[in-house]
Structure formats: structure tokens, C-alpha cells
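ENTRY TYPE: paired fold submission
RECORD: A
CONTENT: sequence, then C-alpha cells
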Amino acid sequence: MMTHPKFLLQTVLALSLSALLLGCGKNGDAQAQQPQKTATVQPTSTPASTVNATAATPAVATLGQVSVSQEELKQFLLVLPAAQREAMRNDRVVLEQWLRSRLAEKAVVQQAKTQEWDKRSEIHHAIEEAQNQVILRSYLQSVSEPAADYPSEQDLQTAYQANQDQFQLPAMYRLSQIFLSVPDKDEQALAQAKKRADAWVKQMREGKAEFAALAKENSDEKVSAERGGDNGFLPVSQLVPAMRSIVSRLEPGQISDPIVQADGLHILKVTDIRPASVRALDEVKPALRDALRRQRQQEATQAYVAAMLDADTVAVDGKVLSQLLQQTQEP
């Protein structure tokens, strides 16, 4: 469903089911992906017949001695959300831009390694620390994984009942509009548009004109005009502030007075209203299950680390600590 940006807010307030429960944030970062083995490809000046025949998959793109293999590209696409993956499939330009960027990264790393940049002490330390973080996250995930049967149906029902406010659906208004574009600060054009709009509103309220027909013939927002002004169902939160109170007071079939905005005049009609409601348990169950498992895993991780700290006495040498802090003070 397409909506007109001239009278909708640019930011859409969408409910994220994966974050419905307070304190159920995702436990840590996603596991780091293991680097993919890429096909070894000869420089582009080398005939194709000399390309390494032992490569697992042919290269999709090459830059000198570096390449992106089919397998590497496949893994990249698989970790994308479905919508982004589909967009990549439909827009080759974007995908080729990613390939170019990936090749550039590999070429820079290769050049740095030829200069033994990876052997510098600070780089070695950073690599070791990054490796330790991957090990830490992976290990903690393994020891804190909830049981396969958690949460139970009773756990889900209890969490659902305790968090009803998180599953609220706002009232939805099916809106139609007639939009008359007016140049900014053109008082004469605004007055003329206002006169036309007032006449239309009067005719429609008296039953002498149809909203859809006027929208098709006169609305400057052509996408909705083709549908007789219809913009589908929207919550008032997606409307610009000046229209929210107006729309919330309209009953189905009622038409607003002309509303003056910076871009022109709007006439709105509410054709249907869906009252506020609560999402059914079956609808939110998959996201609720994921949220509860993440929460359980986070609690298990914290308990595991706390138990490890309690198992041994932690000793802090205050004197050494003070000396170190003194050494690292800003001059």
C-alpha cells in the first residue's frame, strides 16, 4: 500500500515483535562468521585456462590476485534479511557495488600483509583480542543455551498475559484525501485553492458530489488520485501532527474541513475505522518464544560468570593499581 509523503510522517513507527519484552535484548552480538575460502585466481592478464583448477567454486569477481568466490557471495546473501536479499537480487548495481567494495578490502589487506603489517605488535594484540572475544561469545552461548523445550506453552501464556500493553494494536483509520498543491508563501494561490476546497466540501456534505470523483479529477497527489483518493489503513501516529486530532474526531463517512499545510491544502475523509485491539497469542507466539529464550540465555550467562567470580577470591593490588592510574594520567 502506497501512501503520500506530503501528509505522512517520514518515520514510520513500526512495532518490532522481536523486542516486545522489556529487558529481552539480544544476547551479545551475532556469532562472527568464519572467513570463507575464496578461489585462488591469477591476475586478470593471465588467460582463463590458467586459473587454479582446485578452486572450490569459480570466482564471481576478481581484482588482480584477490577474488570473491560464489560461496562467499552466497554466504553474504544468506545472512541478509529476506527483504534486503530480494532487493539485492533485483538491483545488480547495488550488488556489484558490494563486490567492488569487498575486492578493494581484500586488495588493501593483501598489500598490508606484503609489508608485514599484520606482524606489528599493536596489530597482533588487536587480532588476539578479537579472537578472544569470538571465543568468549561462542563459549558462553554454548553453556547458556536454554533447553530445547523452553519456553513451555504455560510460560508463553504467562508472559503474554503479563505484557498485554506490549501487544497493543492502535486504532487504524482508512483515509482518502484530495490534495491541492500551493507554492510556498503564495497567499493568492492559497486563497484560490481554499475557495475551491471549501466549495467541494460543501457539495460533498450535501450529497451533491462524490469524494472519489473529485479526487480523481482534481487531486495533485496522482498515486492516491487514481484510487479515488484512497490511502488505505493508517494509525494516527503516521500522520503529521496537525492532522492527528482532526482525523481522530472523524467518524466513518465524515469529511474534514480543508487543512492548510506548507505544501498546500488537504481534504480528508475517513471511510472505515478498525478499533484498537490486542494481538492474539498465536500471532505473537514465535517472537515471544524467541524473546523468552534470549532472556533465559542472558540470565544463564550472567549466572555462569557470577559463579565463576564467586568460585575464586578476586585479589586487586591497590598499590599497583594506583601506580598504573598515575602513569596513565593526562599531562
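RECORD: B
CONTENT: sequence, then C-alpha cells
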Amino acid sequence: MLKFLYPLLFAALAAPALADDAASAWSFGGDSYAAGRTVTATSEIDGDLFIAGYNVKARADITGSAHMAGRYVTLDADVGQNLYAAGADVDVTGAVGGNASVSGETLSIGAPVSGNLRAIGSNIELSAPVAGNAVLAGQEVEIDAAIAGDLALAAETVEWGEAARVGGTLHIYANDPAAVEVPERVASADRIERHDMSEFEGAEGMQRPGFFARLKGWVGGVVVVGLLGTAFAALAPNYVAELRQKALNRPVRSLWLGFLGLSTLVGSMLFLAMTGIGIVLVPVSLIAAILLGVGGYVVGAYVLGVWATGVAGRGEPATIADRAIAAFAGAAIAGAVALVPWLGWLAMMAIFFVGAGALVVRMFGPAFRVEQA
């Protein structure tokens, strides 16, 4: 279950520094930088674009390269040089003059790429020509366009459209390479090379782990989070009890303040870097964000465990044994919830932010006159 911590941390690190749809923008040396919850670049950019947030869009031409990261990423403009995009949903409808490197869950490439294309995700749709070579790695890949150079294809299932063509060599990586059917119009048999999935670099991350591997990871995560929660509660019982009370009394406020606190820390990195001299403090903000993220998840899981054991009739944890039971119960429930598709991710974020919010109120509430009841 430890792997569930990483999406939470990186999601937090990608969170905007501002809570509303307002965005922070800055230009220097011809390059443009923008961050916020919803950010749209609407003015033509002579240099490079760096944009991050929850929902990011580029709707004006970019002379240089585009660097885009967010939950929803949309490129609806032409890029003169290279494209680097990462997000859960990435939609490319603008032409790329150089290479395109795209990663995420659902990727759609609907405009020509003049250089090489590298796309790694879960669902990939290519419907525009690629002038160079292409690397497509995903669970489901749909190709309905011409690739002038070589293609390295690693996929569980592949669908060939009428316009699909490979001008160079088609390298197929699969658990059963011989089972992957390739129409003659896509590539002739003499231009197809078949490889076992193990030969594809990064294939370990693409293959779905077996049941026992997932169970091992889940149990390991429960043990680690449970031990952290137990140690925290045993070493500072009064402090943890206060955190628990704050989170249970006003969970919505804790969730909101956890999001805001972590977003502020991450946003401070951008602004410190902009000042030049303040860049030396960026590592401090990064460490603080990571500590708040990990601490928030552990506290949130412990709060969940105390609530669950209370419902079961055990009452408030008064001994180290009681606290250990609550910590492990919360870690197990949080890990089980994370396995639920889609809704599990949202529930995990809620647990994470509630715990972080309790920490924020405890540490900074008095200074900002936040009611701590």
C-alpha cells in the first residue's frame, strides 16, 4: 500500500497555490510561467511555456517548447519545438514542431508531430501522423494514423484504424507477441519484429501485478502506516489526541485547510524560485510539503481507525495497545478503500487532507486566530 502514498504526495505537489480559479503568471526572458487551479494560456508565447495546475490549457501558439502538468491537460495550439505533458487526461489537438513526450492515464494525440512521439499511459489514441519514430506503451492502444519511422509498441490490446501505417520497423512487445495481429497494410511481415514484454524497458511497471504481489504490497503498506501511527500516538499521546479531536469535530474544515496548507507550501516553491535569491529556500518548502503530506496521511488513517474502533464499541484509545489497534485498523481501512476504482482515490484524498488539516490547525491556528475547538 505504500505506492498509494506516492500518488497522494505527487497530487499534492501538483496542487495550485491558490484555492480559487485565479492563476499566478510570470514572464521572464521570453518564457512564460503560470500556475493555478484552472489556468489557460491565451496569449502567443515567443519562448517556452511552463504551466501547472488542476485544469491547464494552452490555446495560443508557442514558439518554443511547452511544459504542461495537471489533472486535465489540453494543448489546443501549435508548438514550435518540443512538448512535454503529464496528467491524468492529456488531449493534444495542436501540431508539435519537434518531439512530443506525453504520459498519463488517458492520452489523445490528434495533431501532427513533426519529430518523435513518446506516449506512455493506460489508454492511448493516436489519430494524427508522426514524422519520426514513436514509442507507444499502454494497456489499450488505438492507432489510426501514419508513423513514418519505427514504432515500438507495448500494449495489452491494440486496435488498428484504416489510416494506420508504419513506415519503418514495427517492434511489438507483448506477453504473447505472436498473438498480436498486424494487418498487411500497416506493416509487411518482413518489417515486424516481435519481442517478449520483458525485453521492453519499463515493462515491469506496465504489467499488472498478480494477486499475491498486490496482497504483499497492501500488507506491507498497512504495516508501515500502522507502525508510524502507533509510534506517533505512543510518543505524543496528548498531541495526537488533540489532532484527532480537531479532525473528528470539524472534518470538512480540516479537509479544506489541509488542501490549502499543502497548496501554499508547494506554491511557495514557485515564488521563491522566481525571486532568485529565495531559491535557496526551495528545499525547505519541499521538505515541509513532504512531511506534511506523509504526516497528514498517517494522522488521517489514525483518525479513521479511532472512529472505526469507536463504532465497534472500544471507546477512546487509552493505552499503547488501544492506539496500536486504532492505527492498524485505520491503515487497513484506508488501504482497502484505495483499492476501489475512482471513488477510492477520492476517499484517499479526503483522508489525506483531513489529517493534514488537523496538523495545520494545531500548528498555525493560534497565529491566524483559527478556532481550534
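NOTES ON RECORD B: Residues 282-311 form the longest helix (30 residues). The radius of gyration is 24 Å.
STATUS: closed
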